[in-house]
């Protein structure tokens, strides 16, 4: 307990008795009676041969139960095991290589490390660090090509994480890092540690081929990453049709079904090869395992097919569509279960272009805006 706060009252013997009180704060001064503590108590680390001088091998973690002036900063010293000065230890407790290690020369080092606190008198603790030297990388990293589809409302893309590169390496101790060519950094970024791809705001309509690579420190491998950006037109929203699917998650839909469904849909509803199918958004139905997909079809001449025409086409082709994925319903108007005649049901669709949903798999990522369906029955 570092301190106490007491309220002391004095009362006299008069009639009536009078009193007053005062607060007394008692601070307990700390004595440096706790040694630094290593976590864990002992360490094991590895370093690959031929890594450059200064490679980080290990971060020591030290705590102290004393107050701050009796604890850090700590002073680290390698007591034994470093007679040939193969290692250095910086003031922050990072163990680094001071030579280029060779697996054939030595496969293991054991260091005794001391940590000394800042108290008076100083307290010390010791830990042992076992460092194994392993052979350098013999396998190149492998990465899965990634295709990203972004749907946004006209010049209103806010940016964010749009996908993740999946890479592996058969060398157990390899640490993979990801890089993006500098000329593309004005539009995209890649997290060097986990391979997440971030798009900055204001992407224009079109196709982007990213120059991304993954490295294990020895081998560098290029990765095919293609980003398609499609900007929605307001007229699309007025001519959308919703297909509701049964028992499918957004990620499974994107990774397993979207490509095949897009091809089957094109065959079912396009009158001419030059017509364009636009998948606007996908979104789980709240409180269920269903999934809604919004789409519209643009004619070669520039206009859009009416929902009633598309629904008729879909109804005729439903059996073929269900060879790809199970369909729950095909919706143009949805009156919340009320039995309305078509002409008495009004539906409006709104898009929140600043609330993006990213559904990412190893091969395909789909980024789309959240949508809201407002339905009013005029019966």
From TrEMBL:
Signal sequence, renumbered to the chain: none
Domain Cadherin: 4-38, 39-143, 154-245
Biological-process GO terms, alphabetical: homophilic cell adhesion via plasma membrane adhesion molecules
GO molecular function: calcium ion binding
InterPro entries: Cadherin-like_dom, Cadherin-like_sf, Cadherin_CS
Keywords (A to Z) from UniProt: Calcium, Membrane, Repeat, Transmembrane, Transmembrane helix
Matches recorded under Gene3D superfamilies: Cadherins (2.60.40.60)
GO CC, alphabetical: plasma membrane
Compartments, as annotated in UniProt: Membrane
Top-level lineage group: Eukaryota
UniProt-recorded name of the protein: FAT3 protein
Species: Machaerirhynchus nigripectus
Native organism taxonomy: Eukaryota, Metazoa, Chordata, Craniata, Vertebrata
């Amino acid at each position: 307990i570092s301190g106490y706060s007491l309220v002391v009252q004095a009362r006299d013997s008069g009639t009536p008795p009078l009193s007053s009180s005062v607060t007394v704060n008692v601070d307990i001064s700390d004595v440096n009676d706790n040694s630094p503590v290593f976590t864990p108590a002992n360490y094991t680390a590895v370093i690959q041969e031929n890594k450059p001088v200064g490679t980080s091998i290990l971060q020591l973690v030290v705590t102290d139960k004393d107050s701050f002036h009796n604890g850090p900063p700590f002073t680290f010293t390698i007591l034994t095991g470093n007679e040939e000065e193969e290692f250095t230890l910086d003031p922050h407790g990072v163990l680094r290589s001071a030579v280029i290690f060779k697996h054939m020369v030595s496969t293991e080092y054991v260091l005794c490390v001391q940590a000394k606190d800042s108290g008076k008198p100083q307290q010390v603790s010791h830990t042992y660090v076992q460092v194994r030297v392993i052979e350098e990388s013999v396998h190149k990293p492998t990465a899965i090509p990634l295709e990203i589809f972004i749907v946004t409302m006209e010049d209103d893309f806010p940016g964010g994480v749009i996908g993740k590169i999946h890479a592996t390496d058969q060398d157990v101790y390899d640490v993979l890092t990801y890089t993006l060519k500098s000329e593309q950094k004005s539009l995209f970024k890649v997290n060097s540690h986990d391979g997440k791809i971030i798009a900055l705001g204001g992407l224009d309509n079109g196709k982007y081929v990213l120059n991304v690579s993954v490295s294990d420190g020895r081998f560098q491998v290029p990765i095919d990453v293609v980003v398609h950006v499609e900007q929605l037109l307001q007229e699309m929203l007025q001519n959308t049709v919703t297909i509701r699917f049964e028992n499918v998650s957004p990620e499974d839909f994107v990774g397993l079904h979207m490509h095949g469904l897009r091809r089957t849909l094109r065959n079912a509803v396009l009158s001419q090869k030059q017509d364009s199918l636009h998948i606007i958004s996908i979104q789980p139905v709240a409180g269920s395992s269903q999934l809604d997909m919004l789409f519209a079809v643009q004619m070669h001449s520039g206009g859009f097919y009416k929902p009633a025409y598309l629904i008729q086409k879909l109804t005729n082709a439903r059996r073929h569509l269900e060879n790809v994925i199970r369909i729950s319903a095909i919706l143009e108007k949805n009156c919340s279960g009320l039995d309305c005649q078509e002409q008495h049901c009004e539906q409006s669709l709104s898009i929140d272009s600043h609330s993006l949903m990213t559904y990412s798999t190893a091969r395909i990522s789909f980024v789309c805006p959240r949508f809201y369906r407002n339905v009013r029955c005029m019966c």
